[in-house]
Amino acid sequence: MIRFEDVSVTYDGAAEPTVRGIDFEVPEGELVLLAGPSGVGKSTVLGAVSGLVPHFTGGTLRGRVTVAGRDTRTHKPRELADVVGTVGQDPISHFVTDTVEDELAYGMESLGIAPDVMRRRVEETLDLLGLADLRDRPIATLSGGQQQRVAIGSVLTPHPSVLVLDEPTSALDPAAAEEVLAVLQRLVHDLGTTVLMAEHRLERVIQYADQVVLLPGPGAAPTVGPPAEVMAVSPVYPPVVALGRLAGWTPLPLTVRDARRKAGLLKQELDNAPGEGRGELRDKPQTTRTRERSAQPTPTGEVRALSVLRGRIQALSHIDLTITPGETIALMGRNGAGKSTLLNTLVGLIKPSSGTVHLGEATPHRTAPKDLVRKVGLVPQEPRDLLYADTVAAECAAADQDAGASPGTCRALVTELLPGVTDDTHPRDLSEGQRLALALAVVLTARPPLLLLDEPTRGLDYAAKARLVAVLRALAAEGHAIVLATHDVELAAEIAHRVVLLADGEVIADGPTADVVVSSPSFAPQVTKILAPRQWLTVTQVRAALQETGR
């Protein structure tokens, strides 16, 4: 159905091809996963299937890509639209209508499908993706994850024979991601749809893949094969594979179920781990700031009886939250639960309908921005929303000026977080992870005691996520309080001291990470599910415990 024949793509002005030697085939009715570190060209490969590369992006494509017998060099995207449905990393940029139902119908209208067929397919897609309750909602009022589901639905309704998906679960909560992946599996198995997908969160998708295409980097040919074989040599792999590698399991398990069947001996070894190595979450670190104060430090932020009404929607209801120095809190919950609304209220972008929010003596929505940046900083779900200048140097200069910091403060942070990025680089030319790091440097220039991050690992590979975790741990050790809204259960397990679980705008759980996530089937990390009932959260914990036992 899809055939790459010795394909290379070189963008205008680039010294080297972004991808080279791409040669593989995606048979009809299979789900093939593109994997690899950030920046190796996965999005470029996907764009070559839909014709966006090179007809829209520019550059030179050498070799040949055919889809259902059509050569993408001679067929523009509109001439492939009846065969290929595409969802990119930023679905909101592709929306052309105002409401959910209209967006689901738009693609079919463009193809001239009969109205009665359109109506039936819209209803089927609303049910498939759990969107029926949102059918009349303006797209602009939806959460990022809800918008992601609408974007996926809009390409499903025309019934394309090929689906091309770039990070399709990146903005989805665990339950919604499972629903979407189940739908894709049904399309592949029951309808013979061909799916080519790139995804960094391999723990979600690896079990559904028929083949994995690993793109190792510039100049190297891809590795193609069954998932277990490719994961054995891949530089990127999910926690279940990391645990299998650590324990020496052969063949490597790809699912929690398979790993649990192999985990008996490992559980016995871990039961002999000394003292604190038995999976209990680390205590909250004693930062320099908290050691200098009493046992009850002054809160960085306090939220009392907070409610927020957005239009006719009760976004938050009676929220109580205390944030202390050196603490990392993960806000979790379904798409639309109110996580981003709470962050935006903490940073003063949304005025409470009732209740109070205090950051020290400051009330966010009543504080001037030039003063608020020294109290709290938000890295939004789309980091480019903070980036307006044409170069990294200009962004840093503006950040220094806004924060009243000495010249070079922001640039020093960028050098630490983004080694090798030059002053004249345009922010739009950075990868998702690099833009996140730049936005984080901009926010940290003012050294706010409270740092807020909205879906900070969206678009990050495992190595980039590990670097982010190291930076956030260092900030917490210095006394910064960190609140992050995330669907990434593995990130919460790695870094959070507390998890606050939201549902329909209300707090339904607030406690130590292990206590909250271990009891939640949706929000438990893979290691916890494999080694239950012990409260192991991460492969890092398991490795440390095995080292203590002398293994």
From TrEMBL:
Assigned GO CC terms? ATP-binding cassette (ABC) transporter complex
Q: Does the keyword Transport apply?
A: yes
Basic and acidic residues composition bias: residue spans: 277-294
Pfam families xrefs: ABC_tran (PF00005)
The region called Disordered is annotated at 267-302
Query: Example GO molecular function term?
Result: ATP hydrolysis activity
What keywords is this UniProt entry annotated with?
ATP-binding, Cell membrane, Membrane, Nucleotide-binding, Repeat, Translocase, Transport
Cellular localisation: Cell membrane
Q: Which InterPro entries match?
A: AAA+_ATPase, ABC_transporter-like_ATP-bd, ABC_transporter-like_CS, ABC_transpr_CbiO/EcfA_su, ECF_ABC_transporter_ATP-bd, P-loop_NTPase
Domain ABC transporter, residue spans: 2-243, 301-529
How does the protein's chain sit in the membrane according to the entry?
Peripheral membrane protein
Q: What is its main location?
A: membrane
Which CDD domains does the entry link to? ABC_cobalt_CbiO_domain1 (cd03225)
| Functional summary from the UniProt entry | Probably part of an ABC transporter complex. Responsible for energy coupling to the transport system.
Q: Which PANTHER family match?
A: HEAVY METAL TRANSPORTER
Protein family: Belongs to the ABC transporter superfamily.
Q: What is this protein called?
A: Cobalt ABC transporter ATP-binding protein
Which species does the entry assign this protein to? Streptomyces variegatus
